[in-house]
Here is the input.
Amino acid sequence: MSRGDKPRVVVVGAGPAGVRAAETLVAGGLAPIVIDEGERAGGQIYRRPPQGFTRPPATLYGPEAAKAVALHATFDALATAGALVHHPRSSVIGVADGRLQLLEDSGARWVAYDSLILATGAMDRVMPVPGWENPGVYTLGAMQIALKAQGVALGRRLVLAGSGPLLTLLAAQLTKAGAQVAAVLDTSPMRRQLRGFAGLSARPLFAVRGLAMRLRLGRLYHAGVTLDRIEVDERGPVALLWRDGAGRKQRTPCDAVGLGWHLRAETRLADLAGCEFAYDETWRQWLPQADAMGRARPGVYLAGDGLRILGADGAQIAGRLAAAACLHDLGLPAPELAADKRRLARFSRFARGVAEAFPWPAEAARDLPDETVICRCEGVKAGELRGTVDFGGSEVNRAKSLGRVGMGRCQGRYCELAAAQIIAGCAGHDSVEAAGRLRAQAPVRPAPIAALLEDAADGS
Amino acid sequence: MSEATGRLVRLAEGDRAPLRFFLDGVARQALAGDTVLSAVLSVAPALRRSEFGPEARAGFCLMGACQDCWIWQEDGPRLRACSTPLVADMRLSSAAPGDWP
Here is the structure.
């Protein structure tokens, strides 16, 4: 044990999973350290605006307002009482030898842990669309954060495209707030959405709510579309060119485009902590492996969307379960949580329904034109990536070394999945799994050299 | 960067105190509680030019994951605009300082 007689447990992330994990640890008699990149706890889905903003929770979070308020209140009470130690605006950039490397405004430093709970959440999963490197193209999540945390729309006339629950939800939220949404373009055809219905019915309230929002969008919403190109000028998007379900060419004028195909788990720290990964056919991404409680390896626990994308309610449960497993493994009394386990199984059925109904159009990446930018960070094009495959780049880490896709500042977070499809297509792999998975590299966020040098000079 | 109106549309929370900052040497007005990204994009279409292509950049994920929204300061380190609160009289620059290689 690192200090005193209590084991030191560190929770990374203060979204729904991290907050409930911390709460459970406190109830078990521990005083966890909670490290979070946000200014205020809540994560992305229950993100809070800065102090001084006045919209009430019902406006910010809609029907989920009570859950958001409860989560914030729980965390604030624990932090105020000194039951946990909160490090806001703090990024974990590395994991090694039972220590985390933190990057804060004041510089970099190391924090030791006995047990680690990673609740790192998820990001938008995106598919490159020709023209997407231009200013004014955002993720759907970005448009939601802008609205929630700043009260702004990221353009005067927005087109939202992709697939998944956020597409409809965001369109409804933006319209209600007074933004002009010109079109909502879903790449999933209606027949495919119906195939997911059995799973979606595991959470009838959510399914009905989504359907009602969809109906209110009326003629703005189009299913089964193909996205061709974002037409741009110097300022950014001018129009989105797409084909409707019947294959007819369409052009929707706009000055901003939001893209997103549900979510991709944020797994870099789990990778650095030594967790095993497997390719998941349902989610069409590599996911870290853990038992039903979130145990990934001795002393390392995973919870929330960074483990399995079950949404905020599932994340709260997963946070409690991971903390219970952690307490148990430390030989401390742990809650049983039998009801939580049953609910998590139901949420998993719903999540599989979502994955079935709103798939990532993975194979479409293989047909992207050679001149399409794949890596937004460094402007690497599909043709250049394809060119690496003949030189041994039939695996993503090799392709990264040869062609820099995945080498940029986002470290492949937004290009890896499409790049893997392109590589698999070029190399003739039967499955994208054969193209492999980018190995995480510390620092997982860009860090100024000066911060790392000072940290080294401190001799920690 | 070419002069033009902003990209953002303010939909709510408009009655906050004004906050002055400088973009490329010109005094601009934003609101207390704005991120650097909100402040700049409320008066300009982008944050900076891409280092690797001809296009400008205006952020992408707004949650600190994509690193697209870096912007220069006249003095001091680059900032991640989406997660940095605007501070009064901040001096931001859409182009790299002259001595940057």
Q: What stands out?
A: The longest strand of chain A covers residues 226-233. The two ends of chain A are 18 Å apart (CA to CA). The CA atoms of residues 227 and 242 of chain A lie 4 Å apart.
